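Pasting as-is:
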Amino acid sequence: MIIYNQALTKKVEFMLEKLAIRGFTQWPTVWGTGTTNGEPRMGTHTWPEMNSATITIVNDDLVDTVLDRVKKMDAINSEIGIRAFVWNIEKTV
């Protein structure tokens, strides 16, 4: 799962395309705040910016590549914010 400021939406989509990750679900509007120094993204008058979230299931051998790309994107855009989280998927139908 990748959660990011909406300003990074096209970059996240480009990353998925370049890595040939076709299956994903995207939530274009999510609210929240970072755990350390992130400003709230609440869609309000006080905190007008918004986040988006994308979830995808990839093979184990691609996980580190995705995390590395997200880390590089965050280093370039640290004031905007992007985070990735990994869960093991036991079964799918």
